[in-house]
């Protein structure tokens, strides 16, 4: 049986952090053997916020390097830049004729962006879900691994696929969000508030590019207290968070030792954080060094992107000719 088709876009803004790693990247890596994966850097999407032209290339190359350092294998997946696939904007244009202003204006992510940036409500922002639909349908994907915040966009892609099929005949399979279930790990922030994020407290978020000292400093500042006074007492959430991080990067023996110390009221959070920092460094440093090395080898990244685009265009060109034909653009 042929493998199911998977598509996902990776944002090209901001640096990858531990939450991205355990939330998304690690799951991409797990999928690459069992599915036919198309993963791309969503550079067109990033233009909605008008990034400085001189930053664009470095952003895209960095994201590619970080994803490969995190375990994505460009031999196994098609890893490409969205802007290298001209069939995507072509399908986007065709799909825009089936997308209605009213429904696009109702999308919660659009409304959020209007609220946050009332001076930049451009048409690209409004049609963001249509471009995302084109990204997915161009490969006739069935599965779209995304976080909760993107599930509604995948639902819209499903609607647009149905609408196209209904009007022009069956062409697109209906895509569904791929939920990692138990594998979807929330990585808590170091300040005890919510999860790690690139937009909130930067000192409470560990980035894959952080150097050893920065990691140490951030972890030593994690919120703790003077420790429990009663045996086996319940853990406050911020302490649970430190344990959660320990479970991600430390050995089971280490976790067990500190859990026992907590339950027996002998825990010293300073020691626990020191241990967490060293284990975190052992985990992050190789990824960081590999990403840095790759970023310095522009030729290597260029080659990866070129080969990725070739693979992606093979499937994209097939789909776009079918879509044109279905619509009646079939003149010669
Ligand atoms: N919008 C997604 C995000 O912000 C990125 C993205 C763009 C995407 N196109 C996609 C994800 C297609 C899945 C499929 O994270």
TrEMBL record:
It holds the Pfam family tRNA-synt_1b. InterPro entries: aa-tRNA-synth_Ic, Rossmann-like_a/b/a_fold, Trp-tRNA-ligase, Trp-tRNA-ligase_bac-type, Trp-tRNA_synthetase. A motif ('KMSKS' region) lies at residues 195-199. CDD domains: TrpRS_core. It is found in: Cytoplasm. ATP binds at residues 11-13, 19-20, 147-149, 187, 195-199. The keyword ATP-binding applies. It catalyses: tRNA(Trp) + L-tryptophan + ATP = L-tryptophyl-tRNA(Trp) + AMP + diphosphate + H(+). The keyword Nucleotide-binding applies. It comes from the Bacteria. It is an enzyme of class 6 (ligase). Its EC number is 6.1.1.2. A motif ('HIGH' region) lies at residues 12-20. One of its GO terms (molecular function) is ligase activity. Keywords: Aminoacyl-tRNA synthetase, ATP-binding, Cytoplasm, Ligase, Nucleotide-binding, Protein biosynthesis. L-tryptophan binds at residue 135. Homodimer. PANTHER family: TRYPTOPHAN--TRNA LIGASE, MITOCHONDRIAL. HAMAP family: Trp_tRNA_synth_B. Belongs to the class-I aminoacyl-tRNA synthetase family. Catalyzes the attachment of tryptophan to tRNA(Trp). This is Tryptophan--tRNA ligase. The gene is trpS.
């Amino acid at each position: 049986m042929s493998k199911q088709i998977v598509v996902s876009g990776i944002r090209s803004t901001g640096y990858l952090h531990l939450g991205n790693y355990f939330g998304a990247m690690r799951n991409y890596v797990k999928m690459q053997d069992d599915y036919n994966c198309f993963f791309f850097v969503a550079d067109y999407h990033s233009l909605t916020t008008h990034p400085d032209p001189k930053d664009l290339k470095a952003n895209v190359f960095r994201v590619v390097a970080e994803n490969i350092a995190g375990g994505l294998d460009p031999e196994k997946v098609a890893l490409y830049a969205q802007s290298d696939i001209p069939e995507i904007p072509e399908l986007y244009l065709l799909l825009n004729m089936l997308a209605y202003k009213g429904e696009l204006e109702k999308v919660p992510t659009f409304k959020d962006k209007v609220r946050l940036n009332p001076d930049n409500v451009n048409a690209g922002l409004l049609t963001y879900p249509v471009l995302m639909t084109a990204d997915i349908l161009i490969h006739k994907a069935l599965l779209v691994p995304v976080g909760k915040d993107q599930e509604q966009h995948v639902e819209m892609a499903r609607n647009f696929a149905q609408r196209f099929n209904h009007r022009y005949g069956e062409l697109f399979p209906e895509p569904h969000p791929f939920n990692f279930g138990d594998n979807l790990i929330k990585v808590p922030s170091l300040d005890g508030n919510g999860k790690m994020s690139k937009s909130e407290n930067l000192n409470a978020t560990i980035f894959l590019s952080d150097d050893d000292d920065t990691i140490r400093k951030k972890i030593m500042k994690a919120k703790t207290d003077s420790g429990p006074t009663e045996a086996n007492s319940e853990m406050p959430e911020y302490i649970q968070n430190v344990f959660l991080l320990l479970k991600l990067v430390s050995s089971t023996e280490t976790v067990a030792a500190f859990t026992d110390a907590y339950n027996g009221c002998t825990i010293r959070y300073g020691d626990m954080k020191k241990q967490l920092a060293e284990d975190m460094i052992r985990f992050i440093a190789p990824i960081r060094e590999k990403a840095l090395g790759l970023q310095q080898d522009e030729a290597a990244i260029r080659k990866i992107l070129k080969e990725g685009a070739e693979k992606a265009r093979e499937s994209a060109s097939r789909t776009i000719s079918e879509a044109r034909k279905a619509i009646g653009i079939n003149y010669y």
